[in-house]
Amino acid sequence: MYERPDVPKDNPNRNKIAVVVLVAIALGIFILGSTLWRLANVHSALGSKDVSRAVASATVSDESAQQLAEASGLTLTGDDVECVLFAVVPSGDSSELAGAYLASIDATAQSAKLVSLPVSASLPKGDATATLVQLYGDGGLASLASSLSSGCSAPVSHAVVMTQDGWSAFLDAAAQGSSALKRNATKLMGGIVKSDLDATGLLDVATKALSMGVSAEDIAEAGTAEDGSLDAAGLASLVGVLA
Q1: Helix-helix angle 132-152:49-56, to 10 degrees
Q2: H/E element holding 128?
Q3: How many whole angstroms separate alpha carbon 72 and alpha carbon 69?
Q4: Longest C-alpha distance within the chain, in Å?
Q5: Cβ–Cβ < 8 Å for 201, 97
Q6: Close Cβ partners of 109 (under 8 Å, ≥ 6 residues apart)
Q7: Does position 7 have pLDDT exceeding 60, yes or no?
Q8: Is the pLDDT of residue 142 over 90?
Q9: How far, in whole angstroms, is CA 94 from its chain's centroid?
Q10: What is the pLDDT of residues 191-217, one digit of tens each?
């Protein structure tokens, strides 16, 4: 019996092939959806209004900066300086401060520096004092950023809360240069708990700091006084406000 060549023939494996194709499509949709959901949750940590409000409370008055300069025998540089506060916590849901850093970007001097802050050091809090750990535990970023700005004349412009693992990954990528930051941007953002910066702003700040010479292998250490308080004038000098 003659059979036309353009008539499709039954394939005994047709149903199996169809099932495999459908499973592959379903799996692809699931993976895509999971990835988009994960990225959406990661990016929701960025551009935080709570962090923006916390940073807004961190202001440096000309009067307090001048008083600090006179008391320490230093002078105001008048440089355009911005500082990004990095608060490092053990895990994403922790309110305990494990580490604190200031990334200073001096646009006038075209220089940048990463400064490690001793979290056991104290700063003025009203009529008393409190350690950086206590300031963060009691009042979060707002308390910490405000105390650093008012007590040390460090102009905290932005803030980022990161997990310890995320911070370690950030330092590893930073040691390789700005290209590594861009390549690992999505991975690094997974370690961010919250920040007032969006993804583009965060990457821009990191790239700018690296281009101005900040080094993850050469972190400056903020000093402390004999009474255990943070050396305010020393920190202001490190970030470029005093000289």
Answers
A1: 50
A2: strand 128-131
A3: 5
A4: 108
A5: no
A6: 77, 79, 240
A7: no
A8: yes
A9: 16
A10: 889 999 987 788 788 778 878 877 767
Question: What CA–CA distance (Å, rounded) separates 161 from 100?
Answer: 9
- Between CA 123 and CA 146 the distance in angstroms is 11
Q: How many other C-beta atoms are found inside a 10 Å radius of the C-beta of residue 147?
A: 24
Tokens of 102: 């200031």
CB 175, CB 181: distance < 8 Å: no
Q: Which ranges in 121-176 belong to alpha helices (H)?
A: 132-152, 164-174
Q: pTM here?
A: 0.80
How far is 182 from 201, CA to CA, in rounded Å?
12
CA R_g for the chain: 25
Residue 103's pLDDT band (cuts 50, 70, 90): very high
Measured between alpha carbons, how far is 237 from 183 in angstroms, rounded to an integer? 34
CA dihedral 145, 148, 150, 153 (to 10 degrees): -120
Question: What pLDDT digit, counting tens, does each position of 29-59 carry?
Answer: 554 444 444 544 555 688 899 999 999 988 8
- Report which DSSP code applies to 226: T
Task: Enter the tokens of residue 157.
Answer: 């412009």
238: which 2 tokens?
């490190």
Provide the sign of the torsion angle of the four alpha carbons 211, 214, 217, 218, taken in this order.
positive
* CA distance linking residue 144 with residue 234, whole number of Å: 18
